[in-house]
Design goal:
two-stranded parallel ribbon, alpha+beta, 9 strands, three-stranded antiparallel beta sheet, 4 helices, 2 domains
């Protein structure tokens, strides 16, 4: 048996002709190798390149290994990759910027929420004072009250002026009906504050506080006609300093319209 391998099928007849006299005595087995198209050639080229890459070993002077790219060439690739210091600093900087933006936005949301709560509480206190006046024809009052409009020393800092707490204690007792939050009222109750709005829910003589933890300001004055003896009352002034302690009255939340 004679095996003939050729890449061109047209050569088979020529080879058979050369052995023409043996056709009756010899069995010919012909095998042809098909011609590869360009697509298959690329596949085999990549396979060969990959084989070359796996055969290259790392040495002291050759810290790279080769691998085939998209067109069959060999390119160096580091055996182990790591972050550089510049990349780490860039990532840390980006994280810091994003954290700053997030915290700033969260702080703004908290301030806005506290301001909204203070506005609602001031309005509720004003309504309670109106109910008090409708029944008694007077407003809650005390001898010591903060006065932010004083021409001498305006009381604008609730953390240092004792007038805020003293007026607040009397204000709380008149509206709540008792001088302690956890006791039943002894007189009519005109206002029901939440625990977060009271300086102490267990001790006696608490006062009302705003969402920033400072005492609410309260001031109400009356004038008496010396001739008739008639007493006239001004509308009570109720305000929150909105967390400020430096006299920034433009930021206050008040029961009167600000100019």
């Amino acid at each position: 048996m004679i095996e003939i391998t050729t890449s061109n099928s047209t050569n088979v007849n020529e080879l058979l002709f050369a052995f023409g006299n043996l056709l009756d005595e010899v069995m010919f087995i012909t095998m042809t190798t098909p011609t590869l198209y360009s697509f298959h050639q690329k596949i085999f080229t990549h396979a060969k390149s990959a084989k070359v890459a796996t055969d290259i070993h790392l040495t002291k002077n050759n810290p790279f290994r080769l691998y085939p790219d998209s067109v069959g060439a060999l390119r160096p690739l580091r055996e182990q990759s790591a972050f550089t210091l510049i990349e780490l600093l860039a990532v840390i900087t980006i994280i810091g910027i994003l954290a700053g933006l997030t915290l700033g936005a969260a702080g703004a949301v908290r301030r806005h929420g506290a301001a909204s709560t203070a506005k609602a509480e001031v309005a509720a206190l004003q309504a309670a004072c109106d109910r008090y006046f409708a029944e008694k024809n007077e407003y809650p009052t005390t001898n010591s009250m903060p006065d932010p409009s004083s021409s001498s020393v305006p009381d604008v800092n609730p953390s240092t002026s004792s007038k805020y707490s003293s007026a607040g204690q009397a204000f709380f007792k008149e509206l709540f009906g008792t001088n302690q939050y956890n006791r039943p009222p002894s007189t009519k109750r005109y206002f029901e504050p939440k625990p977060a709005m009271v300086s102490s829910t267990t001790n006696a003589n608490p006062y009302l506080i705003d969402p920033w933890g400072y005492a609410y300001g309260y001031n109400c004055r009356s004038t008496t006609n010396t001739t008739t003896g008639e007493v006239s009352w001004n509308q009570p002034m109720i305000w929150s300093t909105a967390g400020t302690t430096k006299g920034e009255t433009n930021k206050w939340i008040t029961s009167w319209p600000k100019m």
